[in-house]
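Hey,
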Amino acid sequence: MENIKTPLNYGSIAGVVAFSIFLIIYMLGYNPLGSYSWVGAWVPIVFIILGIKKHRDQNLEGFITYGQAFGMGFMITFIFASLFGLLVYIFGTVVDPGIVEMTRSESLEAMQQASDQMPQIFSEELYDKMIEQLEAITISSLSFSEFTNKLFWGIIISLLAAAFLKHSKSPFEEDSND
């Protein structure tokens, strides 16, 4: 039971903290899904590390393999990413459906600036295709994108955290059960 309790607690708290930052950015008048989304990047780092450490120290007597640490980090990440994606979906559906248009217009503005600065990169055909894709954005696609981004970076963080937090038993230590 402890194996699921730790990731549920740390993943849920991380999701709520990240969504709270999302709300603060939104209330300040900025787009929390746009260029200010990096403000909450520290959240999964902190909660993945704390969750792995807690699991290692309290459930595994201070020892954890790389695989166990990564598995714990992955479970925390999956719960965090799922909860955050769900909360973004609910927010965009119930609270402010205009966040989709806010994200769309911010992306369009950034794309226009990039095409002005580097016209040789953006052919007219490519530019039109990118506009089409921007117009197809929905709250479902935004929330799924947030889920996949959080999941991807959480996996990277989990891989790194597992490398630093692993602590194997020494083969020379006597087993306390003997």
